[in-house]
Amino acid sequence: MDIFYLSDAIAALVSVGVIAGYHLLLRARVRADPGYTIQAMLNHARRTWVARILKHDETLLGVQTLRNLIMTATFYASTAVVLLIGTVTLAAQVDTLSNVWLAFSPFGAIDQHMWLIKVITLLVDLLCAFVFFTQTIRLLSHVSLMLGVPATVAHERTVANLLIQAGRYHTRGMRCYYFAGPLLFWLFGPLFLMLASCVLVFALYYLDKAPATFVLQNAAID
């Protein structure tokens, strides 16, 4: 294994370790404090929202809100498709772009096989984002339908759980978008991958943390 493959392998392992370590620490923190993350706050808000909509028979308001959420998820899913097309185009122009990437490589010429592996990894990440946002749209459509049926057909807890599951898929899709940043910088070299991964973890720390004013009582993360 030459220095080029070795440097990329080490950078990939370090980056995966940093991101995985952050999520393990986040999970441990959530077990100690279920209301620590913004996701917990949103799940609590979703349950309360569903209860209010069903209690006061505000189906029209609920459907309008869900329509806005579906439009947002559709935008992200469409953007993922555009990025997928751009990534495929990028993979097809490896010969043309290799000279540009050479200027950022501290280890000499860029190996085309390794470069294609990086592009394919980015492609898989964007494909996962598309699938997650598509699942978000599917579940939100189910929720909008279930809001208009009697409680004997769709229980309040069932509707809330579906809405929470849609939120989870949306979060996973956004995670894929976040991970696309380090993967894109990986095309420029292993050092850029590690730096981008560290910046991502730093940003996720503030994005995942719930506001200090939020207190979650008698609830736990699903």
Structural class: mainly alpha
Low-confidence parts lasting 5 or more residues at pLDDT below 50?
Answer: 218-222
Number of strands: 0
Percent of residues in helices comes to: over 70%
SS field, number of helical segments: 7
Entry summary:
The chain has helices at residues 3-32, 38-55, 59-92, 94-102, 112-146, 156-186, 190-208. The chain has 222 residues and is mainly α. The protein has one domain (3-208).
Characteristic key phrases:
single chain; 222 residues; mainly alpha; 0% strand; elongated
3D architecture notes:
There is one protein chain. The longest helix has 35 residues, at 112-146. By secondary structure, this protein is mainly alpha-helical. It contains seven helices and no strands.
Give the helix/strand layout.
Elements: H1 3-32, H2 38-55, H3 59-92, H4 94-102, H5 112-146, H6 156-186, H7 190-208
